[in-house]
Amino acid sequence: MDSIPTEVLGHILSHLDKPNLLNASVTCTKWQTLLDSDLPQPLELHITLDSTGCNAAVCYRTDYDTSITICQCHEHHSDQNIFLRELFRIFGDRLRSLTIEDSLYNMEHEERVTDLSMNIILRECGQNLEEFHLSLVDLRSVRPWTLAQFGKFHHLTTISFEDCKFPAGMSESLLLRILTPSFHSLESITFTNNELISDKFGVAIAKKCHRLEHFVLNSCRRITAVTAVAFCEALVQQRISPTVNLYLQNTAFDPLKLQQFLLNPLLSCGPCWIAQGIVVNIGFDRNALLLENKVERSL
């Protein structure tokens, strides 16, 4: 290939469709330079970590539907990280949504995302991300200060950690600190089945995230009615979002305890709230608790 004149090679590559253009661009620097002006730049990227994904490739359908599958095995780890680095350099700051899904499964060797791979993802992806989703990602091999790079994002509207495992040195305080730059813009926060999350986290979010509309804490066993009370207090203060949906299934939340808190004379806003049980249909009936402010009817 080195003997082919640049003009001829450029003409050949120009006939590739968009999915193959992206794959060709990470082959070598020369090809990337030739294709630079023609490369698609997706707005959304889905990364799947899979033990069978040893032959990394980009699956491009549209700017809103682009995915890659990579492994984390020792044999291909170095090549996969180079692939990731080059891919993020191509996408630049155009990327708005990033999803990482962990499907790693190896009976012989326990595989999980490495610190180096996560470092490359967080370091190289653009700073203009608005949505970051992690699903079933085992982060126990990732250093807490690597995850601290979440602090580079200043415009996140959605952050989601669904059934993820955090490293041993991770704390709620550090987690809150790295999310602080996006507190002003966050509209949806999800942490499920996470032993790290407690009322300390819930209360801080209630006080700081004034645009928040959805707060999902399902199966976070350390969450109690205290988090709900914190939102009752925050909602009567100046907020851009008048309604917050709290998802507290399989937590330590107790509606009777919430009622006791609201009736406590030390809670100035307590008498303002009326609680009633309702049934919400989300494809099936789900019991829910509606809290309505009888003073500010917009809440």
UniProtKB/TrEMBL annotation:
InterPro entries: F-box-like_dom_sf (IPR036047), F-box_dom (IPR001810), LRR_dom_sf (IPR032675). SUPFAM superfamilies: F-box domain (SSF81383), RNI-like (SSF52047). Residues 1-38 form the F-box domain. This is F-box domain-containing protein. It comes from Acrobeloides nanus.
